[in-house]
Automatic annotation (TrEMBL), chain A:
Intracellular or extracellular location(s): Cell membrane
Organism: Rhodoplanes serenus
A Pfam family: BPD_transp_2
GO cellular component: plasma membrane
Name of this chain's protein: Branched-chain amino acid ABC transporter permease
Membrane topology: Multi-pass membrane protein
Matching InterPro entries: ABC_transp_permease, BCAA_transport_permease
Transmembrane segments: 7-28, 63-84, 104-126, 147-171, 198-220, 232-260, 272-292
Family named by the database record: Belongs to the binding-protein-dependent transport system permease family. LivHM subfamily.
MF term (GO), any: transmembrane transporter activity
Automatic annotation (TrEMBL), chain B:
Organism of this sequence: Rhodoplanes serenus
Gene3D superfamilies with a match to the protein in the record: P-loop containing nucleotide triphosphate hydrolases
Name of this protein: ATP-binding cassette domain-containing protein
Family: Belongs to the ABC transporter superfamily.
Gene from which this protein is expressed: livF_14
Any one GO biological process: L-amino acid transport
Phylogenetic lineage: Bacteria, Pseudomonadati, Pseudomonadota, Alphaproteobacteria, Hyphomicrobiales
CDD domains with a match to the protein in the record: ABC_TM1139_LivF_branched
Pfam families: ABC_tran
Length: 306, 283
């Protein structure tokens, strides 16, 4: 029993990271109806910028100040990316089909990947933001020996939770949040009441960039910053299909389900099927979901009045 | 026998002393090729309700979008002419700038934010305002006073509201921006006659009590001319006739083509011209 729980918890906690990447997708998809293929690349870029800035600052400042400075620097890079994307990719493609915009984000992914590595280098970097890495034993009294959990994962889950609460409050309690939701619903109507679309895009890509930065810090702490992070985007797709493309809670629940499902399947079904399930399990779940409930668990249903 | 009221056919209308909005001979081109408006001029006096009449494709929506500068979404642009609002040129002003100045469009087909509640829809209309939450909340109450049905349904998703409620929501949303002028596009679309009457009553009330000027594009000529003070008739991108609403209602051609009050094969002003020409030629 303790073992099952341990696998489940480990899976849920790694699912938090999927959820964070999926969250970036959801934000942009909600606001502009575009599936941002470059979200994974944004995570990579944010990570690279942070690591390099931290290394440069570490020589002249104490650890926490260097980390803080690096965070500000990486955040500024993400704001710049958001602005440039809005200015040079989205605005010229205004009123083109969604497919054109999607294709443009594929191009954007290549540009960000290459530029990031050109400027910051393409080695594998270790990333340390001072989170404890020691394993933690939970529920010592209930189970013999307790549950062994990675301390880093627990911190990751806590940070993700704070981020989600902050985002939900932002979207539902502020005027800007209301404008973002309005623009997501009907671009033309939003413009007609005076909401500037270009500004909306800039805000939403900035938020997605900051979410990418947080994801990069957590993934990087665990696995280091390397090129393969850009392919995280692919892992976020089944999460989105499961949770729904338009739902912030959906991205979180989807991430947790995929994370936990993967690990459980690997441990319990793996031996029967010869192992390696972890790599395709998520996609099979997503495929079956598409057949049964295409809008996902929490996705907005398209309202059609007869 | 009543004295025939003055009508204008194409020539520039008499200049109002202090117009809210005046459109001077504008041309609109879509996608750089299709000339849709071929020189449209019109004036809306302060505190007036002006009707813009015409059949499908005559250019009513295009005229409104040219004023509110929403044409770019449809790849259209104003290539000629001038538009002034409250005495200032607004040809180059952005839609959000225009809303701030007090000129807002209620689009055809209502375009409520379907997944937002009615209350959120109304609040979104106050986006450009910078006068604080208290003032916005007070205006929300005022809008509810004009549209009691919106208050009842304020927590329902707008996408599930009825057509009439959505039209009220769209007008209420525009009112939340504290407009001086509302460009109202086809408010009767898809609504039952009784609801259409209700909507126009509200337009009249808002005009009288809040002093909002209206430019209403409408296919329902009968209703529009009963509530408007002045009207313009558009056909294939040109103003073919304009005059006081009462004069238009009494006009034989308007009666025949737009009010359906006579029988016969004539369907538009173009037919009318050829019909007369042939008759003269035979005689």
């Amino acid at each position: 029993m303790a073992f099952v729980l341990e696998v489940l918890l480990g899976g849920l906690l790694s699912g938090v990271l999927y959820a964070l990447v999926a969250l970036g997708f959801v934000l942009i998809y909600k606001a502009s109806g575009v599936l941002n293929f470059a979200q994974g690349s944004m995570v990579l870029l944010a990570g690279l910028a942070f690591v390099k800035a931290q290394a440069a600052l570490a020589a002249i400042a104490p650890f926490w100040l260097a980390a803080l400075g690096a965070f500000v620097f990486a955040a500024a890079i993400m704001v710049a990316v958001a602005w440039a994307t809005q200015r040079f990719v989205l605005t010229p493609l205004l009123n083109q089909s969604q497919l054109s915009l999607f294709m443009a984000t594929i191009g954007l992914a290549f540009v960000i990947d290459s530029l990031g590595q050109l400027v910051f280098g393409s080695e594998v970097y270790a990333l340390d933001i001072g989170l404890p890495r020691d394993p933690v034993f939970l529920l010592d009294g209930v189970f013999d020996g307790g549950l062994l959990i990675n301390g880093l994962d627990l911190w990751g889950a806590a940070i993700a939770a704070v981020l989600v609460v902050a985002l939900v409050l932002f979207f539902h309690r502020t005027g800007t949040g209301l404008a973002l939701r309005a623009a997501a619903d009907d671009h033309a109507a939003a413009q007609s009441v005076g909401i500037p679309i270009a500004w909306i895009w800039f805000v939403v890509w900035t938020i997605a960039g900051l979410v990418a930065l947080v994801a990069a810090l957590l993934w990087g702490s665990k696995l280091g910053i390397q090129f393969s992070i850009a392919f995280l985007a692919l892992k976020a797709l089944p999460v989105l299909i499961l949770g729904g493309f338009t739902s912030i809670p959906g991205a979180i629940v989807g991430g947790l389900l995929i994370g936990a499902g993967e690990k459980l399947a690997e441990v319990f079904l793996g031996p029967m099927l010869g192992g390696g399930i972890e790599y395709w399990f998520a996609y099979v779940v997503a495929l079956s979901f598409l057949l049964v409930r295409p809008q996902g668990l929490f996705g907005e249903r398209i309202i059609e009045r007869v | 026998m009543s004295v025939p009221l003055p009508l204008h056919r194409g020539e520039p209308p008499p200049a109002a002393a202090d117009p809210m909005l005046s459109v001077g001979n504008i041309e609109v081109v879509y996608g750089r090729v299709a000339l849709v408006l071929k020189g449209v001029s019109l004036t809306v006096p302060k505190g007036g309700i002006v009707a813009l009449l015409g059949a499908n494709g005559a250019g009513k929506t295009t005229t409104l979008k040219a004023i509110s500068n929403l044409l770019r979404n449809d790849r259209g642009e104003v290539t000629k002419g001038t538009i002034t609002f409250g005495g200032e040129r607004i040809d180059a002003a952005s839609p959000s700038d225009l809303v701030q100045r007090g000129c807002i469009q209620v689009m055809e087909g209502r375009h409520c934010f379907g997944h937002l509640t009615i209350a959120e829809n109304l609040l979104a209309g106050a986006f450009t305002r910078r006068d604080g939450r208290a003032a916005v909340a007070a205006d929300l109450e005022r809008v509810y006073a004009y549209f009691p049905r919106l208050r009842e349904r304020r927590n329902a998703q707008a996408g599930y509201a009825s057509g009439g409620e959505q039209q009220m929501c769209a007008i209420g949303r525009a009112m939340m921006s504290k407009p001086k002028m509302i460009l109202l596009d086809e408010p009767s679309m898809g609504l039952a006659p009784q609801i259409v009457e209700e909507i126009f009553e509200i337009v009249k009330t808002l005009n009288e009590r809040e002093g909002v000027s209206f430019l209403v594009a409408e296919q329902n000529t009968n209703v529009a001319l009963r509530y408007a003070t002045y009207g313009y008739v558009l056909e294939t991108g040109r103003v073919v006739m304009d005059g006081e609403a009462e004069a238009l209602r009494q006009n034989e051609d308007v009666k025949e083509f737009y009010l359906g009050l006579a029988d016969g094969g004539r369907r538009s002003f173009r037919d009318a011209k050829s019909y007369r020409r042939r008759k003269r030629w035979l005689a």
